[in-house]
Amino acid sequence: MSAVIDELATGGVRMALPLLLASAGELLSERAGVLNLSAEGMMLTGAFAGAAGAHASGSATVGVLTALAAGLLFAALQALLSVTLRADQIVTGITANALALGGTTYGARLLFGDQGKADALPGFDPLPIPGLHSIPVLGPALFEQSLLGYLAFAVAGGLAVALSRRTTWGLVIDAVGEDAVTADRCGLPVRLIRYATVLLTGATAALAGAHLALSEVHAFSDNITGGIGYLAVVAVIAGRWRGWPTLLACLVFGLAQSLQFAAPAIGLHISAPLLTTLPYAFALLAVSGLVGRSRAPSGLTVPFARAG
Fold first, then answer.
1. How far is the CA of 185 from the CAs of 30, 172, 175, 265, in angstroms?
2. CA neighbours closer than 13 Å in the CB half-sphere of residue 240
3. Does the domain made of 2-287 have the CATH classification 1.10.3470?
4. Cα separation of 287 and 240, whole Å?
5. 138 vs 1, 13, 84, 92, 141, CA distance in Å?
6. What gap in Å lies between CA 212 and CA 262, rounded to an integer?
7. What H or E segment, with its residue span, contains residue 29?
8. CB distance 256 to 15 below 8 Å
9. Torsion sign over Cα 266, 270, 271, 275
10. What is the dihedral of CA 219, 98, 301, 183, to 10 degrees?
11. How much is the pLDDT for 307?
12. Where are the domains of the chain?
């Protein structure tokens, strides 16, 4: 049984890592008032760009840099639409996801052949931390990650701390997300802050996609993200727009996904399709309000226009 628990914990953390990265950036953007439903498209674009860069250069590091560049470009276009042109953030997000799915599918056909799949890509292997990786349960789950996995922990934890209301940055982000007009009158550069948060979302989501392609499977296939970007948005809602609760929600979703593979070993004879829906069932429970009331930032999805 201990081996099963180890496997469940290790699988849960492994599956939560891309979700952690994507939700950390999404939390930052939403706290500033910009809803990035396009996190799924950013992740998918990052995964494809990372795979393409690694495939062309033979270097996983080049793949990550390519993914970051693609994610920042995607985010810049999103920010242009949402912040400068004040387009509807829900419509632009859904449209961007559809374009990302079609564009990466077509690009994969051109680059990787008719099936659009790339296998055995250069990637990042696990780097166990001596001594710590042998701790029961937590050791394999936390201290046998790849370089991108450790980076995911650092980025997610760093953003959670930075968004604390005890930090100047956290207070500034909250001011812009709650009442952008008042924040502007107080001298805060609202558009610049929102641009910066959307760009950071693009970077973290692209890293999440690169982690999925280059650390988890060392491969790329159509729609490799499989809705993780949407789960990142749900995790922010489930975490009530706060840092550490959002990270906890990501871990719960990761464990739910891991249960699909651990269930037979612990005697749970449940059909695979039903287990596949488990993370989304948890997500519906989280956003239904049954786990507690939450309040979104007052300015979320509200375009900023300077008062005359």
1. 21, 13, 11, 60
2. 9
3. yes
4. 9
5. 15, 10, 45, 40, 5
6. 20
7. helix 2-31
8. no
9. negative
10. 60
11. 64
12. 2-287
